[in-house]
Amino acid sequence: MTLLELDAVRASYGKVQVLQDVSLSVPDGGAVGILGANGAGKTTTLRAISGTVNVRGRITFDGIDITRSGPEKVASLGIAHVPEGRGTLPNLSVRENLRVGAYLRKDRRGIAQDIDFVLELFPHLERRIGQNASTLSGGEQQMLAIARAFMAKPRLLVLDEPSLGLAPSTSQDVYDSIQRLRDESGIAMLVVEQNANLAFRIVESATVLETGHSVLSGTVEELKGRDEIRKAYLGG
Ligand SMILES: Nc1ncnc2c1ncn2[C@@H]1O[C@H](COP(=O)(O)OP(=O)(O)OP(=O)(O)O)[C@@H](O)[C@H]1O
Ligand SMILES: [Mg+2]
To answer: Per-residue pLDDT averaged across 157-164, rounded?
Structure first.
């Protein structure tokens, strides 16, 4: 079953149209990547899904048309977005950040269980549980942002360049955490990355964006077999 579907999506900032024709779908429980160069429209595609830019075309989630839904409605339907640059609450502790992630939930026991679950998956965070988020390293902040989004108990986790600004070994650590989260929870993911070697560790298929168009999509095996993908995104 398809969980999320974008069909011929267009989006603009003011008069400037940035997305021209983006189509992609995420199966229920699947993991899909979005690849593309700087400025291709990857972040804007995620904003279109989250309801923070004006969109034409059609976006459906779990069969519901969310094309014109605002961010609160989209979040309440079960889409959690970890934006570029992370956005943890710097003056709250790791534990408090995780609690904030669950603020729409009422199931206190489920929240406590999920905090234990994410701390087991993210041992870096467990070691820093009482520290303010502002004192965490960049990689730890990224892990916290992902764990916090998961605390909302979403059906789809949307991640915008989790490796941005991180050293290669730290990026690997962050992707190890994402992989564990996916393996252990089975949650669906939509992951934007410029580094396909990282994205291909966790996604089953991907879409390539160029200047606001989705120009190519396929399974990881299909994409790895294409020269233009190897040259542009896999380092040769
Ligand atoms: N708030 C905004 N107002 C006006 N133009 C914007 C805004 N945000 C992005 N753009 C423009 O939209 C285009 C696509 O930007 P977007 O951020 O979606 O690209 P991206 O693929 O995420 O790039 P990057 O890899 O650098 O993060 C760019 O030309 C950018 O300058
Ligand atoms: Mg971006």
So the answer is: 96
User: Which strands form 205-210's sheet, in the order they lie side by side?
Assistant: 64-65, 54-61, 2-13, 16-27, 213-219, 205-210, 31-36, 188-193, 156-160, 79-82
Task: Give me the phi and psi of 216, to 5 degrees please.
Answer: -160, 140
- Do residues 25 and 4 lie in contact, with contact meaning Cβ atoms separated by under 8 Å? yes
| 6-20, 186-200, 221-235: segment of lowest average pLDDT | 221-235
7-21, 80-94, 182-196, 199-213: range with lowest mean pLDDT: 80-94
Query: Candidates 6, 13, 53, 161: which one to mutate for ligand 1, based on the most atoms within 8 Å of Cβ?
Result: 13
**In order of start, what are the domains of the chain with their CATH numbers?**
2-86+154-233 (3.40.50.300)
